[in-house]
Design goal:
Blueprint lengths: L2 H13 L1 H10 L6 H28 L1
Organism: Alteribacillus bidgolensis
Pfam family, one: ComZ
Protein name: Competence protein ComZ
């Protein structure tokens, strides 16, 4: 994965972490940043795959 793109995805993810933590806390699930790391990595993979899918679609047009 491109390092610059990875950093941009991380910035987006971090912008929404508090919202995600609040949602989980409302459900009675408490997570610290160490626990959130695997979820953030999965989110980064999803964002990268979606980006590549959009990029490939744009190349076709």
């Amino acid at each position: 994965m491109d390092q610059e793109l990875n950093m941009r995805f991380m910035e987006i993810a971090m912008k929404h972490v508090q919202e995600g933590r609040a949602f989980l806390n409302e459900k009675g699930i408490e997570l610290d940043m160490h626990d959130l790391q695997p979820a953030l990595e999965m989110l980064m993979s999803v964002m990268n795959e979606a980006y590549n899918m959009g990029y490939d679609d744009a190349k076709k047009e």
